[in-house]
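Quick board copy: two proteins, each given as sequence then tokens.
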Amino acid sequence: MNRLLSRIGRSDLRRHPVQTGLAVVGVAIAVAVVVAVDLANHSAREAMRVSLASVTGAATHQVVSGPDGLDERVYTRLRTELGFHAAAPVIEGGARLAEADTRRSLTLLGLDAFAEGPFQRPLGGTAGLGEAFNELLLGERAIALGSGEAERLGVTAGDALAVQVAGRRVSLEIVSVVDDPQDQARGLILADIATAQTLLDRHGRIDRIDLVADEAAVARLKAELGSGARIVPAAASAQSVLEMSRAFQINLTALSLLAVVVGAFLVFNTLSFLAVRRRATIGVLRAMGVQRGEILRQVLGDALLIGSVGTVIGLALGFGLAHALVGLVLQTVNDVYFSRAAGDLELSTLSLVAGIVVGVGGAVIAALAPAREAAATPPRAALSRSDLEQRAHSLARQATPAGIIVLVIGSALIAGSSGLVVAFVGLFAIILGAALLAPRFMLWLTALLRPLVQGRPLAGLVVEGAAASLSRTGVAVAALSVAVAAVIGVSIMIESFRTSVIDWLQGSLAADYYVTAPVAMDDGTADTVAGLSGVAFVSRSRFETVQTADGPIEIWALGLPNQREPELDLLAGEPAAAYAALAEDDAVLISEPFAARRDLEVGDTLALPVADDAPPFEVAGIYRDYGSPTGVVLMRRPLYRALFDDEGLSGIGVHVDPSANAAASPDWQPVIERATADVPGARVTDNAAVFEQSLAIFDRTFAITEVLRWLAGLVAFVGVVSALMALHLDRQREFAVMRAIGFERRGLGFVVGGQSGLLGLAAGLWAIPLGLALAGLLVFVINRRAFGWTMGFELSALPLVEGVLLAVGASLLAALHPAWRAARQGIARGLKGE
């Protein structure tokens, strides 16, 4: 009997290839999105891990100091006077390929090969360098590369490599290509530490000293080194970077799970219709003595088949999609989190297992409800269509309070917790609750339309048919509304974030021109620019990162003329009081992400890694900033110079006198470029260019989100077509009756298309409040908890209209084939079995 039931199920799937194929496609897309995102996230994590490990190696701790690093004599004292030999000096700097057509950035890593033994870095040890060891030590421009990086650059030992370092173009000699089969040294240029100091113009200075030490040795060294140097865990900086990117990857995973939810609804919808279509067959089989368990296994077996085929296809598609997504993920990581992340697609067994679980497991779970309903139906009721519709209306009434309860639970989860993962659980609970309420909304809409179609027979058939066939239409509207709501919610979130970033840029880009350089500038350069005729004043900025045991802290030291205040959007703190405290040099301002990550409020104190006797600084205000996900601490430049003894400048903001700017003034950019010509690599950018570059980074950051949004839309489109095509194909006998009582083909087409359009309209309308709720959660909860940012809610009609048009358009498209088939089908054949 089981074999016979299996043959009946497979035969039914073969007789409806379009519907079965669309269900398989829905599962395949959902699996592909999950696998692709998971592989891309895994590859990004591996790229960051390898990049971080390549410069820290086996170090357990690091000796660091202020922004200018350490005097190299600290290292000499550490090894000679203190007798600590598991130590190695390190200096790092940015380098860029000199060719104008490439944006590839590299890291120049200066090491002492004699001290590298305990640290096991992919480059730097004497074993890997071989005979090139002496050349690397003695060569004035000698470098070594990993074999993977050399292959990417198309160079080998003995070749020259032209790069930009510290604003100067230099030609480096590759003396060794070190075997690096795992590509751990990707993006690294190794040089002897003395060579790196020369190239980076940092004679006598090093960035840090790496240590391999236990806690007892660390405690002893802290006491011996004094207050000029600090010892921090080597993993603190790496962990901070990985934690920052974790929220971004969780967001991507959650967006991919939206496709899973839509795909599960698609399978549920397909198998629900399958159970409805086989209802008469099931009734006959039950009357012949087939047991409920056999019916249950047969329907679940069909689901397993659909899920298995879709999963196999989805795994292949996911692997191909991951190749495209990994570049987008790494680009975002480079733009926002970690500038040295670079890598290729890394396969992960867990990603493939996740795809199999999502595809096969999701299909079977989605089929449980329709399978149990089919198995539990008594033989007589299975042969009665009216009984089915009565049960559907009863379930719709029962689902209403259940949906409200689930909505309340989801809202309570979000309101009662501060975690990101819990917020996503609450979000998916709200989606489920809205799906449970969709059939009731369908009945409410048809009741609202009923008075409007009185006296119009065809329109009445459209409305009454949608309400009378709730067993078919309820599930379809629920599935479609969830899919369309996901598209609407993500669209509004992206537009809200983009608008907030634009507003922030327009308020914070106060200068007319900005001068930057790869090397530190000085006040003499700023004074020269300030002295240009027509320049009102200049702002002087120093951006530096200081290492702490809790991870790096980015400091912005801002110098402004007297009586001028920073142009910031203060979110907390009274502006006059905040700026007055800042001017007294006993308080700082912090950015919103920094406040969120460190759980700080106005009035709290913040300890910075400076002298032991330095008091903590009061937080005078919190300002909006989308430029750094880690957050920034803003202080006046005189305070920064007193704390860190650093006179350098990272940037100069040029404010042109408005009257001079409005008059027939020269093109300011070349004038400022001539004034800064003595600064190596100085670059002058106008306000508009900075604005455009910032928006370009934003668009690159959200490129992958847009891709996932369109993929969710594709799943929604497939879901619309599949659900409504199944609905209409299941009504061929009803259409034959309509033809038999005198309906013309045109009238039949109107009924088919009208009901399809009505269902699409119902799904689109129900998706609007759900989509707005999802957008609100993404804007006010998810992004806040993930990144510490708040933003405005930008509501426009376009995403709402697009969502409704997606549902209605796909619904009408789904009606074409059933309408054509109903019009061509012979009446006698359609009535067979009546």
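And the next:
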Amino acid sequence: MPSDQRFSRINAGYFAICLLLGGAGAYYPLIQSVLELGALALLFITLPRLRGITTVPIAKGLLLLMTAWFALILLQLVPLPPAIGLDLPGRSWAIAVQREISLADSWRPLSLAPDRTARTLLASLIPAAILCGTLTLSKDGRLLLWRVVIAAALAGAIVSVVEFATGFSFSLWANSTRNAASGLFTNRTHHADMMLVGIIACGVEGAVRSGARWEKKWMLLALTALFAFALLITKSRSGLVLLPLAVFAALFLARPAEKRGPWRYLSLGAAIGLIAMLLTPTADRVLARFASLGDNPRYGFWAMTAEAIGDTFPIGTGLGTFRSLIPVWEPLRLVNPYYPNHAHNDYLELVMEGGALAALLLAGLIAIVVRALQHHRRVGNTAGRNPIFLLGGFAVVLILALHSFNDYPLRMTALAAAGAFALSLLALPHKARTRSFKSSAAAIASAIVVLSLSALSVSFALSMRAEIRDPQKAVALQPFSSTGWISLAYARLTEDRCNEAKEAAVQALRIAPASSTALAVLGSCAWRSGDEASAARWMALAEPLGWRDIIVQSWLADQSLQGEDRAKATPHLDALLRMDPENPIAGTTMMSLLADRNGPDAVAEALGVAPSWRHDFFENYRRTGVISAAGTVTLVEGLSQSPTPVTEAERSTIISGLQARGETAAVRRLSSGLIDNGTFSSGSGPLPNRARSSRDWRSGTAFGVNAVIGEIENPWDGNALIVSDRGIGTGTIAEQTMTLAPGLYRLRLAIRPQASVSALPEWQIVCQTSPDRRAPSSPLNARYDTARDSWQSLTAEFVVPERGCTTQTLQFVVADQARDPAILYLDSIEIISLPD
């Protein structure tokens, strides 16, 4: 076994590799396998050094907690008698699948996806190796690991700066976050966490260098500033919230005992630098993201995870099973093209997967952290104890623990390694009393376990890599992988080799019964063979497993339509469009429902929860016009009773389509107001030459006149229409087409010239007598009254005749060529129907 100094270097080298490569994520299984093999090797040489460490209370607690974690994983993987499995909560759908494939009487593990739980066991080896290794290191060995953290953070910061300099066109990993810096990680928030850990490490290094020249401490301050900047360009809201805490912790750790001298200048410089960074445009963009917190999908993730906990507690679903099982509890309103890979709350996800035992382990971890802090407070610096490493470790643990409330930092290998390192610092350094196993039998047994787990890790990694290109090879490499069998089943289905597809699907269900894709393959094969009853049975088993499978949702929608059950078909079509808003078959089918007698009500129910495809749906309606005027009115009125009624923009789109088809009566019925956007609150910027719909404002033909919607000083009510007139041309300034019923109306608006003008522009109503012909018009007889703050109130009455005026255009025109340049502001334009 290696000497203490060599072991320290080995530990530091492996820790560095984890921090540099551990941000690649699950999309790089070979990298993950390399880190797992390294963890097994490190554990093999570390285990003998742990003998006698039980004399250190905190270290003993951490080792017991680690042992309990692995015991929980093994407990979830041990097959249990069928009598136990039938009584477990929240598994009725799994039992139904097992009965269908004749497995109801077989022994099953507690985990509903044991292959994923086995991967969790392998992934847990990495932080376990770091934890055990650090517990046996001396103070110098632990300081070396702090410096590894600084070096890794610096490498990540340099990569993120390069990303920023290239406009985020460069990234280290193929699936990294776009349009934001992600450094050594695929996820920007995890890179932000690494920068926070790096800032704390700088504080620890500053404390260690308490007697060094101040130039070196200024260098640490420069590194801290670099890490803070690298965090800002991640655009991570959580990172920005936690940044002041990390900076405060670093300053607290680095302060000298006397709290005098240059430390004050360092603190002041750090505070000024932090404030300056928060005032930069980059920080402004991050702060602007807080405005969308109310629409954050994390709230939905938390709700469905809490529901899963309620259904499966106290047993849980199995560690590592969230991604494969959460669709069972995912409501239709949360379905979108992006798959929920984690709950974005590690505590909820942990309890969902591990049940009551995982919650107890979490409580035990909290108790150990509190006990370590209490011990430090009682003992302090006596007997040569230096609390810097302990406090620095606690700061890292606190940062990661807080971020775990709305993300999953500890499920990323690099941050899990950093967290394990920080936890181990809560225990005092322990000098290894021995470097060899107690007996040759223990060494042989440990070697067998290490080799077995190594083979398992490599087989899983190679299998995952081969799943897409060669699923047959994937299952040959790792027959215990349900995802490999699912990939093979789907591949054989597309090749029309149903016998092989069914065998692969059944094998997948034997491992993990929550695969809707495997059930869909069995249903599709039954349908192709003409066995409609079996197909319906398989698809019915897949239906409770969520909305995510395209084959299942397509089949269920088609069967509902064949049975003329429009209300039952629309949720399945809705799910298909949420996953792919451009799905041509689902989109066309949903549109065709509007032509049916009961279709508009069913479609209105689907549109009423504001699905992502709603905008495309209304645009397609405007272009195709497959629905009658009466059906359109039914749809809009149905939506008015929904949680999300038709917006003004959507109403304009619908009315535009009706106007194009000459449906004047329907247009009048659907017009929520006689004029659109009269307050100019919708949109900003120059008026378009051609409006999105005929009811939008559009610019006119007057030369030398510009009309722009924007903010002004001394406004009437928010935005206004700003008219800049150079006084060199005549014509229309702005106009909007309306559909008014015959009768008497009053035009009313607020107008304010920037300075006194010789003559104000005129208003007129132009009747559309035919699609390509307008009747001549004359200016309205307007009356101006003083309002407030230099604003004037304009009122004018006009009549829409009984004939020859199905649509009208309200125009704001300049006709006087001998006028001075002027700037006008207009707001609150409205038309009111008057009694005849």
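Board note added afterward: Residues 745 and 834 are 5 Å apart (CA to CA).
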